[in-house]
């Protein structure tokens, strides 16, 4: 079976009918007896089925699907007494974990169908990401744990994706409280050899914070996208900071401002350019050692008019990992106790050394929730994890 078949089927299907189109295709082409698409919620801690009715034990299927999602490898679940097995395949688009595809098959078909279905799952994940902007169906499936606030709705729609991966670089980020985040945000873009990442430590709460962040993100995107055609460099980060700062100051007159970190990584050489505009905290993990990175601090965006910024450059080493955390993480506090950043953050980061970025940020977030004794976070919390190593020669 050529993957072109499923690509054409998904391209010609209505965006809100991708799950049903996939189910029919699996039955006709792969002899599937059932299929289920599980989508990760905004917190990436829960999978919810969408579309086709589940057959068999839900808890058993969910446990196997969750293992496939966490490990990002296919998981084979034993039969249900009717001679059927289920193959659970992670759905991932360019490194962003979307969910899991579960397919019921006759056991003797598994060796042949497994590699084919893995290719199919990749095609479906890309189609699903494209469909998000064209239907509400998959957004609704992801929020079964609760309703998003208006501010959170704006922040998640503003986000390009929660992760990215290609040879040599892995990126993942998470916003909390996922269903009520206000101003913290991150943005990223890939252009040629450069990965540009922006981390914003929001000011204020709720809708006001989301509006401020939206203005800043779009101002920086406007500057980044104004690079002349054919120019591979990401442009001058200082210019991007200036444009965003001027836009914020013009709107708020200095009454509101935004602590922001602008990064641009050359994914081939490891050159890291940055502007620290009162930024979130940046932590380097190198050879198992955790240390704060301390760029020259500059003014937050929009604090004063006509502010100018200076770009710095540092050289990453192969295997370096960067964590970026907002003050909702490192200054999180409980009454009469040291802050989370003083007590637990380095320990939590050190414990993730063998985990990929997506799992690493989940581990740190779990540690932060444990610090809060399971209570909802009071302040917005942003965590980004970025791994770099030189690309292997082709």
TrEMBL record:
<dbReference type="InterPro" id="IPR001932">
    <property type="entry name" value="PPM-type_phosphatase-like_dom"/>
</dbReference>
<dbReference type="InterPro" id="IPR036457">
    <property type="entry name" value="PPM-type-like_dom_sf"/>
</dbReference>
<protein>
    <submittedName>
        <fullName>Phosphatase</fullName>
    </submittedName>
</protein>
<keyword id="KW-0378">Hydrolase</keyword>
<dbReference type="Pfam" id="PF07228">
    <property type="entry name" value="SpoIIE"/>
</dbReference>
<dbReference type="InterPro" id="IPR052016">
    <property type="entry name" value="Bact_Sigma-Reg"/>
</dbReference>
<feature type="domain" description="PPM-type phosphatase">
    <location>
        <begin position="166"/>
        <end position="388"/>
    </location>
</feature>
<dbReference type="GO" id="GO:0016791">
    <property type="term" value="F:phosphatase activity"/>
</dbReference>
């Amino acid at each position: 079976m050529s993957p072109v078949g499923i690509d054409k089927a998904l391209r010609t299907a209505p965006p809100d009918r991708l799950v049903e189109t996939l189910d029919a295709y699996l039955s006709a082409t792969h002899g599937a007896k059932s299929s289920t698409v599980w989508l990760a919620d905004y917190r990436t801690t829960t999978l919810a089925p969408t579309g086709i009715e589940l057959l068999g034990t839900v808890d058993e299927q969910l446990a196997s699907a969750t293992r496939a999602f966490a490990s990002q490898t296919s998981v084979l679940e034993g039969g249900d007494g009717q001679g059927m097995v289920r193959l659970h395949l992670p759905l991932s688009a360019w490194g962003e974990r979307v969910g899991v595809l579960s397919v019921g098959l006759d056991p003797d078909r598994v060796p042949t169908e497994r590699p084919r279905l893995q290719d199919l799952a990749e095609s479906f994940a890309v189609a699903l990401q494209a469909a998000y902007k064209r239907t509400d169906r998959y957004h609704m499936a992801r929020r079964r744990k609760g309703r998003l606030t208006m501010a959170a709705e704006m922040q998640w729609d503003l986000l390009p994706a929660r992760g990215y991966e290609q040879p040599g670089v892995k990126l993942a980020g998470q916003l909390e409280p996922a269903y009520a985040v206000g101003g913290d945000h991150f943005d990223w873009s890939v252009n040629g050899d450069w990965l540009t990442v922006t981390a914003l430590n929001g000011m204020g709460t709720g809708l006001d914070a989301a509006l401020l962040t939206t203005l800043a993100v779009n101002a920086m995107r406007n500057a980044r996208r104004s690079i002349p055609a054919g120019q591979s460099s990401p442009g001058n980060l200082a210019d991007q900071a200036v444009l965003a700062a001027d836009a914020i100051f013009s709107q708020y007159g200095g009454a509101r401002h935004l602590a922001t970190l602008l990064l641009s990584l050359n994914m081939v050489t490891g050159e890291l350019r940055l502007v620290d505009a009162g930024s979130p905290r940046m932590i380097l993990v190198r050879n198992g050692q955790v240390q704060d990175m301390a760029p020259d601090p500059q003014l937050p965006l929009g604090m004063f008019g006509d502010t100018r910024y200076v770009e710095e450059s540092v050289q990453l080493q192969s295997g370096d990992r960067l964590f970026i955390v907002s003050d909702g993480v490192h200054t999180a506090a409980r009454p009469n106790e040291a802050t989370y950043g003083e007590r637990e953050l380095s320990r939590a980061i050190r414990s993730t050394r063998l985990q990929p970025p997506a799992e690493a940020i989940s581990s740190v977030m779990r540690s932060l929730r444990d610090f809060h004794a399971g209570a909802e976070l009071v302040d917005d919390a942003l965590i980004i994890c970025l791994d770099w190593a030189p690309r292997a020669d082709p």
